[in-house]
Specification:
Layout: H1 5-13, H2 20-33, H3 43-56, E1 60-64, H4 70-78, E2 84-89, H5 92-104, E3 111-115, H6 118-123, E4 131-136, H7 143-150, E5 154-163, H8 180-191, E6 196-201, E7 207-212
Parallel strand pairs: 1-2, 1-4, 2-3, 4-5
Antiparallel strand pairs: 5-7, 6-7
Helix pairs in contact: 3-4
Bound molecules: S-adenosylmethionine.
S-adenosylmethionine (SAM) binds next to α4 and β2.
């Protein structure tokens, strides 16, 4: 998106590809939702999520925005066998697909689905610093709330990854509407937050990595 098609194709060809299970999930999601497949993370983000979770040694993870399960599978695959991912979403229909693929992937014992508004789910979680890794990829106006609920529960050195922070490149357009103003506010909030160190990567639609100091 932020590069030429030739360079993007080259980068994709030199990134470990999704396996058959993830490719099948992407295909089935496309059949189910058509153009809304764009809600699913890009394959290279999936590879990156698994790598980040594994490199960080995370055992306890939270996802806000599960959809049909692509990112949750990538996160759970980076966890050790006794690790745990809490997956938050409001859609029974979409997460029914996710549940099926968790089972196929042998990950259903590692992932717990919590259906309901993610703000409520996060607020109901214990107050201690128990989360090692979080991924935020749900309704964009909710991002500040998700961030502020997750950060105090994240262990120092823990990581939050946040999707769609560049809004198809519209983030720098002052006239852009939709989710852009909310995302700009969120990006500003993170950039001035002395509790964290962050980097906004131009991967896919923008992926911000936030490490708690
Ligand atoms: C962009 S999709 C997530 C894509 C997913 N990460 C993947 O890789 O396939 C956003 C998801 O957020 C969910 N969502 C929207 N508002 C929500 C809320 N208030 N609480 C929890 N989930 C919400 C939607 O149901 C949808 O499944």
């Amino acid at each position: 998106m932020f590069t030429t098609p030739a360079v993007a194709a080259y980068a994709a060809a030199h990134t470990s590809p999704p396996d058959d299970l993830l490719a099948d999930l992407a295909e089935e999601t496309h059949r189910l939702v058509g153009d809304r497949i764009s809600m699913q993370i890009a394959p290279e983000q999936g590879t990156l999520l698994t790598m980040l979770v594994r490199l960080s040694g995370a055992r306890s993870a939270v996802e806000v925005g599960t959809f049909t399960g692509y990112s949750s599978i990538c996160i759970a695959r980076g966890l050790p066998a006794d690790g745990r991912l809490i997956a938050c979403d409001v859609s029974e229909e979409w997460t029914a697909v996710a549940r099926r693929y968790w089972q196929k992937a042998g990950l259903d014992d590692r992932i717990e689905l919590r259906l309901g508004p993610a703000a409520d789910t996060l607020r109901a979680m214990p107050a201690g610093e128990s989360i090692d890794f979080a991924f935020i990829d749900a309704d964009k106006p909710g991002y500040p709330v998700y961030y502020e609920e997750i950060l105090p529960r994240l262990r120092p050195g823990g990581l939050i990854a946040v999707d769609n922070t560049l809004q198809h490149g519209d983030i720098t357009d002052p006239a852009a509407g939709g989710n852009v103003p909310a995302m700009r506010e969120f990006n500003d909030l993170v950039a001035r937050d002395s509790r964290v160190t962050s980097v906004l990567l131009t991967v896919a639609d923008g992926l911000t990595l936030i490490r708690k100091n």
